[in-house]
TrEMBL record:
One of its GO terms (molecular function) is FMN binding. Residues 10-344 form the NADH:flavin oxidoreductase/NADH oxidase N-terminal domain. Residues 392-678 form the FAD/NAD(P)-binding domain. InterPro entries: Aldolase_TIM, FAD/NAD-bd_sf, FAD/NAD-binding_dom, NADH:flavin_oxidoreductase, OxRdtase_FMN_N. The keyword Kinase does not apply. It comes from Adlercreutzia mucosicola. Keywords: Flavoprotein, FMN, Iron, Iron-sulfur, Metal-binding, Oxidoreductase. This is NAD(P)-binding protein.
Length: 697
């Protein structure tokens, strides 16, 4: 029994099965590689599922397609359950790997938006009506009564196949804007037959499906229903579900045969941010709490559940009975086991970077990258830390996420590792990004804890690696992870005393006064800051001081560069009450921000009274009182503008930095350049690159 997480780590009976704890995964099919071009599950999917079952996940929910997919060009690949021929592969690659570790696996029958009403038909979006919430997700066809009957029969056939394959439960998808949720919502249902009009009619198809599933699976087999009591949808036809309507539907669902509510929030068309880091952990628990006022069966809540401490508190407060989520499981497949064993310091918590969702859902790619977990995609094809054939002497240069993951991986593979850091503390750029995102501070803390558990890694702080040092150390392999080179701006005034760069801050965090700073006051402050921060620094302390101090960021700032670095700084300045201008040559501010974050972030900028956005704007000069620019309108007309500001921040991102790597290549047999120094990217790219390089040695 867990002492820190007594409810989260405790079992729960759901009809005929018992969850070993209160943590289940929601479904997101991981895509290509996990399923082959013929829609067959692969060894990679088996490894993905087994890793999570071994990690103690109480129930894993995975999507299965109920029809045979003959034309999948442009479609996200899914394993299928259309007839008995699918059973052996479902059992071998999905059921058995989970059962091997006494886990439970639930089949979610895939009916989000698409339906294939006949063998020779093309799968496409269907619903009660042809109403589209937003044009980019249109094309819905209104289902005929005959197609509704075919839909149900197809559903029930898929359930039979999955039960025969050995799945422990079935999930009915009735949320996120899928077919059944569209029937239940007045916003997308304008039918006048028995499936439209009143709430009872709109809920009819969902209840018929649940009753039909119950008839097939019998009384003891669990039926999970994924549904959205709050959809944040409104069309000309009417509003989405009200909470009172959702409560009534919850009662009807239980009467029809539901055993576990798996609550989602919103639809895929919803414009309200749902899963991003701007939404606090546990924010959506009020929805589960409302459903629990009428529910007799357990209620699970998904979205924004990443911290076991908050999960436990929500359970203790009676807001829900089960924590449903996915990203916590992608980040750390063993998180449930660590909960049950009170291994809090070992937890690799999700940093809410949304890379997994953005790649799989928004970009149609496969699940390969996670901000904190490199063991996804092709890396699942071998064990986590494959033992090296022979131990080697490995030099790792740089201690950001690429460098530390490289050092930890190489050490656990059996190599002798020396990690070199030019500054006074480990962490690389994450030391600075943690100021903007407390979630990055989670990762920084995790990496530091991991380093403490591996004293066999020799750490060299305040040490600049030069070719001479490499020559004296004589490593068998070197992994260079020194970060990228900051992109400068070649305009008059770019070296002015009112100009700052992200690299200036990183230098100061590393205990060095940035070079070339003008003005006596500036030099004193940069020098004093470097002296202090060399001895004491935490991201939370820096975050607090940024809100209070007016140096080096004044109360009036112009940020040159509207990509991710500029947007992160802009958000911090907005939140701390600074008058902020963001200037970007491209059409869109936030052009490289993740799709999950971009809309919410730029909307917040547009709504904020203290933020002005200047897209399609080129800086021509920097003055002490602001920035001279040329702005282009949509017709291509140019005009000269002036953006007043006291501080100017240059945040144009990074270029590759191959200098050290190229110098030492003649001296070391195997040299790997990883992270931003090789290919500037995001934290997930660095995490993966460090791991992959260390596995290659």
């Amino acid at each position: 029994m867990s002492k820190q997480y007594p409810i989260l780590g405790s079992p729960l009976k759901v009809n005929g099965v018992t969850l070993k704890n209160r943590m289940i995964t929601t479904s997101m099919s991981p895509g290509h590689g996990y399923v082959d071009d013929d829609n067959h599950p692969t060894d990679r999917l088996a490894a993905y599922l087994e890793e999570r079952a071994a990690g103690g996940t109480a129930m894993i929910i995975q999507t299965i397609c109920p029809w045979e997919r003959t034309d999948i060009e442009g479609l996200h690949p899914l394993p299928c359950c259309y007839d008995e021929s699918c059973v052996p592969e479902l059992k071998k690659y999905m059921v058995d790997p989970v059962h091997k570790h006494d886990g439970l696996i639930c089949a979610q029958i895939y009916y989000v938006h698409d339906f294939k009403p006949a063998a020779d038909a093309k799968e496409s979006p269907y619903g009660p009506s042809d109403i589209a919430v937003i044009p980019m997700m249109g094309g819905f066809k209104a289902m005929t009564l005959e197609q509704i009957e075919e839909f149900k029969e197809q559903y029930f056939n898929a359930v039979r196949v999955c039960k025969e394959a050995g799945f422990d439960a079935v999930e009915v998808m009735a949320g996120v804007g899928g077919i059944l949720s569209r029937f239940m919502s007045q916003a997308t249902n304008n039918r006048t037959d028995q499936y439209g009009g009143s709430l009872e009619n709109r809920a009819r198809l969902t209840l018929e499906v649940i009753r039909g599933v119950r008839e097939i699976v019998g009384p003891d087999f669990p039926i999970v229903v994924r549904w959205s009591p709050v959809d944040f949808i409104k069309t000309d036809n009417g509003p989405g579900l009200s909470m009172e309507e959702a409560k009534q539907i919850a009662v009807w669902m239980e009467e029809a045969g539901l055993d576990l509510h798996d609550l989602s929030v919103g639809w895929h068309e919803t414009s309200v941010p749902l899963t991003t880091k701007g939404i606090e952990d546990g924010h959506w628990m009020y929805i589960a709490q409302e459903i629990k006022t009428v529910a007799k069966k357990p209620v699970g809540q998904g979205y924004r559940n990443t911290d076991p401490t908050i999960m436990e508190q929500n359970l203790a407060d009676g807001k829900c009975d089960v924590i449903a989520g996915l990203r916590y499981s992608i980040a750390d497949p063993a998180l449930p086991l660590k909960v049950m064993e009170d291994r809090t310091e070992d937890m690799r918590k999700c940093i809410v970077c949304c890379r997994c969702i953005d790649d799989v859902v928004s970009r149609g790619l496969s699940l390969i990258y996670c901000g904190v977990n490199p063991h996804l995609g092709p890396e699942l094809d071998h064990e986590l830390y494959p033992k090296a054939d022979a131990p080697k002497k490995v030099m790792v240069v740089g201690s950001g996420p690429a460098g530390i993951n490289a050092a930890l991986t190489a050490a656990q593979r059996g190599h002798k590792v020396d990690l070199y850091e030019q500054g006074p503390r480990l962490g690389g750029c994450v030391k600075m990004s943690s100021i903007f995102s407390p979630y990055h501070e989670r990762y920084l803390t995790y990496l530091m804890n991991e380093m403490k558990k591996h004293p066999e890694i020799t750490v060299h702080l305040n040490t600049e690696v030069t070719p001479a040092l490499v020559s004296s150390v004589k490593p068998d392999a070197a992994i260079v992870a020194v970060g990228g080179a900051p992109i400068g701006l070649d305009v008059p005034g770019a070296d002015g005393k009112n100009v700052i760069t992200s690299h200036d801050f990183l230098e100061m965090l590393n205990g060095h006064k940035p070079h070339g700073k003008k003005g006596l006051f500036n030099n004193i402050m940069w020098g004093g800051g470097a002296f202090f921060l060399k001895r004491y620094y935490t991201p939370s302390f820096a975050r607090e001081m940024t809100g209070k101090m007016t140096w080096p960021i004044s109360r009036n700032i112009a940020i040159i560069g509207g990509g991710l670095p500029g947007c992160e700084l802009g958000h911090l300045c907005m939140e701390t009450g600074r008058t902020t201008a963001i200037i970007e040559e491209k059409k869109k501010i936030g052009y490289d921000v993740s799709p999950s974050e971009r809309f919410g972030l730029t909307s917040a900028f547009k709504k904020a009274e203290n933020v002005e956005l200047y897209p399609l704007t080129r800086v021509t000069a920097i003055r002490e009182d602001g920035v001279e620019c040329i702005q282009t309108d949509r017709e291509g007309n140019e005009k000269t503008i002036f953006v007043p500001s006291k501080t100017v921040a240059i945040t144009l991102g990074l270029d590759p930095n191959h200098t050290l790597g190229e110098k030492i290549k003649p001296m070391v047999k195997d040299v790997y350049l990883v992270g931003d120094c090789d290919n500037p990217g995001r934290i997930a790219d660095a995490t993966k690159a460090g791991y992959v390089a260390a596995c290659a040695i």
